[in-house]
Amino acid sequence: MLGKGSELRKLYYMPHNMGHSDGVNCMLMADGKIYTGGRDEYLFVWRAERTANGEFELMQDCPPIHLGASITAIFYEASAKWLLCGLWNGDIRAFCKEPMREERLAGHRRSVTCLQVHSSVLISGSNEGQVRLWTFNGQTFQGHGQPLTNPSGPVTCLRVLGEALWVGGYEGISCFDLGTLQARGTISSQHHVTGLLECQGFMIATFRNGEVSIYEASGSQVFRRHAMGEHASNTAVELMLHPATQKPLLLCGQVQGYVTAYDLPEFRPRGSFCCKDRSDVKARWGGGVGKRLTQVTLPLRPPQNPLFLCPACHACFSSRASFFSRIEVVLRGFPQPSLPPTLVTLTLPSPPLARRPASYESASYRLLG
């Protein structure tokens, strides 16, 4: 399914008689291990190994742990080494490695759909439409204040951006002030929000119908990709850095096992691949984007309109003006083929250029933060 000449290569496919006996709901990577939570009520811990012929495979690191209910969310708090598992019955099970101990957090009445830790406070969202805060006193977790009722319905995802808590639900996105814990407002949607990701000070939101939107911290929408082609669903989403280019990639999991990758910030489709036919993608782990991207190199079309972008490219640059402050244009073969490349710097936001030089052979753009 990867296609001839693809930059992707399948490293491993788990045998059907290995691992979970039902679907995998969530997964994460921490401390060199992979943790998976399933509908079969088991938590599996895996480690990567090399076989005798140099191939990659996953091996169980310990016997599976039965938690008594389907595992619907998972999060690892690295500083305190707590592994947190949200369950279908509303409980949260917390496991600490050093020292070894276990906690059970009761409060939600329906499945826990998402977990985050911010400023040493655990934030949990549930299918009952509530968000709860939990503080840790060094020995145990305690509920903090009253639960927050999500104006956008049952909670599907949550993320902190600046001083606001963004909560995705069945009817849109709601924002809460972290200082007052009061709702700031709601971005309504007819489609379920399936993911929220913070990237370079912006919030990326994916929707069940395949749409992707990008918002400023104020809640203003700066980009929207409508569902189109075969990308007509979003079931899971993750950010990662391309290992060769070090550019961020947005991975959108879909129904029927497909994943579509987009280069950011230009939101250019890189391609799609199929993980498992006739199975919805429920969880992805790409390692995240740990640093701000300050430079992007883009190819240009031939110079039929010297230094004037085609309408599609112009709109693309304009939609990303909030992400960058300058465009560098390198012209080759201008004004004569024998001359060195010419560098032109533009300040955003602005039209691509107001003057028309003669002609050039090729060009490239760099967007600078």
Task: Write a brief caption for the model.
The chain is an all-beta fold and 369 residues long.
Give a verbal description of the structure:
- WD repeats lie at residues 105-134.
- Keywords: WD repeat.
- This is ZFWD3 protein.
- The chain has 369 residues and is mainly beta.
- The chain has 2 domains: 24-274, YVTN repeat-like/Quinoprotein amine dehydrogenase (Methylamine Dehydrogenase, Chain H); 295-368, no CATH class.
- Helices cover 2% and strands 48% of the residues.
- The protein contains 1 helix and 29 strands.
- It has one helix at residues 311-319; strands at 24-30, 33-38, 42-50, 56-60, 65-66, 71-77, 82-87, 92-96, 101-105, 112-118, 121-126, 130-136, 141-149, 155-161, 164-169, 172-177, 183-188, 193-199, 202-207, 212-215, 221-225, 236-241, 248-253, 258-263, 268-274, 295-299, 326-332, 342-347, 362-368.
- Strands 1, 2, 3, 4 and 5 form a 5-stranded antiparallel beta sheet that branches. A 4-stranded antiparallel beta sheet has the order 6-7-8-9, with no helix packed on it. A 4-stranded antiparallel beta sheet has the order 10-11-12-13, with no helix packed on it.
- β20 (212-215) and β21 (221-225) form a beta hairpin.
- The protein is globular and about 55 Å long.
- The protein starts with 23 loop residues before the first strand and ends with a strand.
- 31% of the residues are buried.
- Residues 286-325 and 348-362 have low confidence and may be disordered.
